[in-house]
Amino acid sequence: MIRLKRIIFIILCGFAAAKPALAAGDGCSLAGTVNKRAEAHQDSIQKYADKYGISSDMVKAVIAIESCYNAQAVSPKGAQGLMQLIPATAERFGVADSFDSNQNIHGGTRYLSWLMKRYDGDLYKAIAAYNAGEGAVDKYKGIPPYSETQHYVRRVLTVYNRLSGQAVALPVVTASVGGGKTSVKPEQKALPVGKPGRAGWQVNKMKAPHLYKH
């Protein structure tokens, strides 16, 4: 009987080890779920969002899609932690330990802010560059024709809209083209024009956060 239990235990362990890891963003698309997972990191998110002029809801959305709030997440390409910083990016933005949640959020938020300034407040380009790198965005002068990056931008903005109550237009993804890639139509939808009041101010700030000093 003991031997049988041991065999069952070994089989179950083997099954658990063989299960694929949770894909980044799975189970992290609803506002309630994201806010609940973000609670443990709220102080760091708000602190660095305020410091670098980025919406805290955007930081939450990026973390949700990058790691689903798994501070120990490691991608096949070596990206680490909550905001999935590759070692070169971590070093570039002063992160000594990417598995330290506070440091990771600091570096990732600083990088997002840097990208927003680099692309003059173009949210599509900034989010695409966070996923594919500045080189790819510069080469294609917009969201690169990579299926992963195009859907990444849409997923981040979808979560952001749900968290913030904003209505930032999603870029249009066209049908698949050669090589299994997809492309974004050149005439991407523009960000909505800000309306009077707080909502309009928030939209304009998202478009050009570097113009709004804290």
Automatic annotation (TrEMBL):
Top-level taxon of origin: Bacteria
Signal peptide: 1-23
A molecular function (GO) term: peptidoglycan lytic transglycosylase activity
GO biological process, one term: peptidoglycan metabolic process
Domain Transglycosylase SLT: 44-150
Keyword field: Signal
GO terms under cellular component: membrane
Family: Belongs to the transglycosylase Slt family.
PANTHER family for this protein: MEMBRANE-BOUND LYTIC MUREIN TRANSGLYCOSYLASE C, SOLUBLE LYTIC MUREIN TRANSGLYCOSYLASE-RELATED
Record's protein name: Lytic transglycosylase catalytic
Organism: Thiothrix nivea (strain ATCC 35100 / DSM 5205 / JP2)
